[in-house]
Specification:
This protein has about 280 residues and is mostly helical. Helix content is about 80%, strand content about 0%. The radius of gyration is 29 Å and the shape is elongated.
Length: about 280
């Protein structure tokens, strides 16, 4: 969560409410308060809050699901890396360095993709590039191991596609339109309503408009839990599990590549000193 953006959201809502209160003061002194407060008006406010509650419950379900996605992605990547690493432990001659390097690069690409620095189609192509790597190490492993690797690859692909769907799809666009319209009309109604004395009218107008505007902006922000690329996004799920997994994968890949180079140099040295 971006703390600065969270406070920026509060300030943005405060700016809108200040405009509403300013308009209320102008209408009061000009005598333009022509709407009387009655039970129908409070019913409209309640209906709008109910509508926003419906929208909020919908986006919260996606948000809670999205909180698990970075952890699931990191688990898939680390499961793949550990399975591939186990092949070399069982068969020291196995060349698994390229596959581990590809997994490390894939974790970095996924992090960049969350910030929209990679296209989804390109990322899925990188996931597909794991298939020839699995085929290459099949000669040093069992068929069941390759089947597990392909299953994790499928889980990784499925999670990425689900993430793309959540990020690119808005929850009930027509509901947002209706909530926007009712909120604007209610703010206009509060400005034109006769509430005495003046300080009470300013208090109720400020509180009600702040509640409705803040809820509306919060729901729009929660609708995209992966808004790291959006300047004013405040409520985003944490990528810390994926960032930590990317660091571990980079370390594993560098160790395996170094070990492979050491083995190659040792074999070359032995060939150089061996009698012909």
């Amino acid at each position: 969560m971006n703390t600065n953006n969270r406070y920026r959201l509060l300030l943005q809502v405060s700016a809108f409410v200040a405009v509403v209160i300013g308009a209320k003061l102008i209408t009061h002194f000009l005598g333009w308060e022509v709407i009387s407060i009655n039970p129908l008006f409070s019913g409209i406010v309640a209906a709008n809050v109910f509508l926003m509650g419906f929208l909020l419950s919908g986006v919260l379900s996606d948000f809670k699901e999205s909180e698990r996605i970075p952890g699931e992605l990191s688990a898939c990547l680390e499961n793949l890396a550990q399975e591939v690493r186990g092949v070399r432990m069982a068969n020291p001659e196995a060349n698994v360095g390229p596959c581990l390097t590809l997994l490390s690069q894939l974790s970095q690409d996924i992090l960049s993709w969350f910030h929209k620095k990679h296209r989804t189609a390109e990322l899925l192509e990188h996931v597909n590039e794991l298939t020839p790597q699995f085929a290459a190490i099949e000669q040093w492993s069992q068929a069941t191991l390759v089947a597990r690797l392909k299953q994790e690859q499928s889980n990784l692909r499925r999670t990425l596609i689900r993430t793309h769907t959540i990020r690119e799809t808005s929850f009930v666009s027509s509901g947002y339109m209706l909530a926007d319209l009712i909120t604007i009309l209610l703010c206009i109604g509060l400005v034109l309503a006769r509430i005495e004395p003046l300080y009470e009218s300013l208090f109720f107008v400020g509180v009600i408009s702040y509640l409705m505007i803040y809820l509306l902006m919060l729901i729009r922000d929660l609708d995209n839990p992966f808004g790291y690329y959006e300047r004013y996004s405040a409520e985003d799920v944490s990528l810390k599990p994926l960032e930590e997994a990317a660091g571990r994968l980079s370390q594993i890949a560098s160790i395996e590549v170094s070990a492979l180079k050491g083995s190659a140099e040792q074999c070359a040295a032995q060939d150089a000193v061996s009698p012909r």
